[in-house]
Design a protein that fits this description.
6-stranded mixed beta sheet, alpha/beta, 478 residues, D-Maltodextrin-Binding Protein, domain 2
Length: 478
């Protein structure tokens, strides 16, 4: 049994690494060499010869259970009709790779019919002037996007909703129930604030856990904390009413968070990790840590692999030597500065390039709506770990049974409740130079956690760097 569990956790580590690797981004670019349609040809398939099936190429970089879900949805869609044939093509295992492929496609004039990309890359994709807004397709049908208000707000710029379909996730706290019980903590009451996280970590450390919090130094966490405290990261309503030109990194929330990170590391309560690896999961699996904040999309992959089933690791090499026996994971809301669950829209989205033939754009829209159906949403949620975005699905009996009876569902339900609580008036930042912006914020967190630098100095330097990055992007896109 021990050998089987070790084998499972080796694959678990690789699969989780692929799930979270989709947070990376690349250099922003702008190209006006292609002319994108702004009118959605929703009826263009009606003009196609019935004997000529339209091929829809879908580019993505999703992995594990989410990849399997997309492939199975494409297969079932192909079997359900005879006008369109969907071909799913992976462009790698990270969002940066699919974005790079898209930029290369702009240069060559060869773009897919449908693109799945990081929702955080939406601004730079818009600025390439190659996308057909999803809003145009809803407008062509005379309907509004059938999504919950927070999703519409989070994926809109200048009051235009851009995706044809959103695949949404959120960051949540994963923890080991048995470690909580052993430390005399209530396993059904995870910490919900930074102060509670500190006290929980101290109790776990007193009971023998080396560094209780595996702390990923992710820019998205900083955005959660800052927005939850009532501040914006950049100007122009966090970049929603125009390109951001100034940062707001020097605010009370960033001071509070960076001082907290410094204290947690100095006291041995947290082990910091850079974004892009799987060591934060290894720390929990090896029981040197008992808590980690990570994406909700890891939930069904965790459940699938702990049940002894296989997932697609994308051929990535996997580490070994970790025993997963006794692993009893649970989840709680994202711990905020003063209250839990103050989140933003994350995950990915499907976007329609507006430079392809009308019938391909129509096919992309039709397939997107197939995936957005109630059954499609169930499959994305039950298997792919993406959160349901259609109003009323939280009352669906199948959804409720999944959240009650399935480990993956129990973990995911935390993300669902967090999503439904997002304030649509606070959608979070929309930033064009996302790669450089992300690197600057994560570098600031790293300077405090790894180097022990003075917080005031770090914030001053980061504010200056972010302003330079934002202003350069504006100049490049004028």
């Amino acid at each position: 049994m021990r050998r089987v569990l070790r084998s499972r956790v080796v694959v678990l580590i690789a699969a989780l690494g692929l799930v979270v690797a989709a947070s990376a981004c690349v250099r922003s670019e702008r190209s006006l060499s292609l002319s994108a349609s702004k009118v959605c040809p929703v009826d263009a398939l009606d003009d196609v010869d019935p004997d000529d099936r339209v091929e829809l190429e879908v580019w993505h970089a999703i992995n594990a259970e989410a990849k399997t879900t997309l492939e199975e949805l494409a297969e079932s869609y192909n079997e359900s009709q005879d006008r369109v044939r969907v071909v799913v093509r992976s462009q790698g295992t990270t969002y940066s790779e699919v974005l790079n492929a898209y930029f290369q496609g702009i240069s060559s004039g060869d773009l897919p019919g449908l693109l799945h990309a990081d929702a955080k890359d939406m601004r730079v994709l818009i600025d390439t002037a190659t996308l057909l807004p999803g809003q145009a397709c809803f407008d062509a049908l005379g309907v509004e996007p059938d999504v919950i208000p927070a999703v519409r707000a989070g994926l809109s710029v200048n009051d235009t909703y851009w995706p044809s379909l959103a695949t949404v996730s959120s960051n949540i706290l994963y923890y080991l129930r048995n470690d909580f019980e052993a430390a005399g903590l209530d396993p059904d009451a995870p910490p919900g604030t930074l102060d509670e996280l500190t006290e929980t970590a101290r109790a776990l450390k007193d009971n023998g856990v080396d560094r209780p919090l595996a702390l990923l130094l992710a820019d998205g966490f900083m955005e959660y904390w800052v927005q939850g405290a009532g501040y914006e990261m950049v100007n122009n309503r966090d970049g929603r009413d125009g390109l951001a030109t100034e940062a707001n990194f020097d605010n009370p929330a960033t001071h509070r968070v960076l001082e907290w990170i410094k204290m947690m590391v100095d006291e041995g309560l947290a082990q910091p990790f850079s974004v892009g690896g799987v060591d934060q999961f290894l720390a929990v699996l090896a029981r040197t840590s008992s808590m980690v904040i990570e994406t909700s999309t890891a939930s069904t992959t965790i459940a699938t692999l702990l049940a002894g089933e296989s997932v697609d690791t994308g051929g990535v090499d996997t580490p070994g030597g970790v025993d997963a026996s006794g692993l009893d994971p649970a989840a709680g809301p994202f711990p905020g500065i003063s209250q839990p669950g103050q989140a933003q829209i994350g995950g990915g989205s499907f976007f329609i390039p507006g430079t392809t033939p009308p019938e391909v754009q129509a096919a992309a829209w039709e397939f997107s709506q197939y995936m957005a159906s109630a059954e499609g949403q169930r499959r994305w949620h039950f298997q792919g770990s993406y959160l349901p975005i259609v109003p009323g699905l939280d009352d669906d009996p199948e959804m409720q049974a999944f959240w009650q009876d399935d480990l993956g569902g129990q973990l995911l339900h935390v993300g669902v409740e967090q999503l439904l609580a997002i304030d649509p008036d606070k959608p979070g930042p929309s930033v064009g130079p996302k790669p450089s912006y992300t690197q600057a914020i994560e570098a600031a967190m790293g300077r405090v956690a790894f180097e022990g630098d003075d917080v005031d100095d770090v914030i001053r330097d980061t504010q200056r760097d972010l302003n330079r990055i934002l202003q350069q992007y504006v100049e490049d896109n004028e």
